[in-house]
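Replying to the earlier thread about multi-chain prediction with a worked example.

Input:
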Amino acid sequence: MADSARRALTSPHRKCDRIVIGNWADGGLLPGERFDTVLLDYLIGAVDAFAPYFQEALLHQLAARTRGSFYVIGLEPYVPVVADEEVGAFVGDLGRLRDACQLLARDRPYREYPAQWVVAQLQQAGMTVTDTKYFRIRYRQQFLAGQLDICESRVGQFADPALAAALLEHIAQMRRRGEALIDQHDGLAYGRDYVIRAQPLNDML
Ligand SMILES: C[S@@+](CC[C@H](N)C(=O)[O-])C[C@H]1O[C@@H](n2cnc3c(N)ncnc32)[C@H](O)[C@@H]1O
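Result:
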């Protein structure tokens, strides 16, 4: 991730720019520093895989480091009941298949949090939430391939070869079905991303 971030930089580093690698749960990241702008880009949903049960503490810690604007970008969790609709049901099944493959490979899947939950945490942390915006998602071929590639790579780590063979067959079926749905519906229109903007309460007074 750090290497690809470095490659993505379009202009040269300024002296003050840093790419820092570390786990927020270890407590030693950027000690004592505060920031004008803090942006959590799909971070909260990923925390369960890197620092389980740390989502609340992370939001509170990072809110306390913010002097100006605090942004949280995330994916609204899919509705837990299988949607009574072909595309929604497929996208939900795809997510469940990815998580199941990760669990069976003894890995920890991501866990997404609703915007409402994030807003409540920020308010408890003494922030004022100034905006919440939702953006409808339309998944394309790259997403389908990426999710199923994760599944295949995890199946390679299964202890039970019969289970692995059955899952590989199911993944191949999901690939064919997903590609057909993308063609038929011009992508998979399902779910929403959100952006929340907040400020420390003191800044508003
Ligand atoms: C879904 S990725 C998003 C990355 C980037 N914003 C993007 O869209 O390409 C989530 C990132 O959160 C990071 N992450 C998750 N939990 C973390 C933690 N406890 N401390 C530091 N980074 C964490 C992961 O390393 C991963 O790079």
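The chain has a mean pLDDT of 94.

Feel free to reuse this layout for your own posts.
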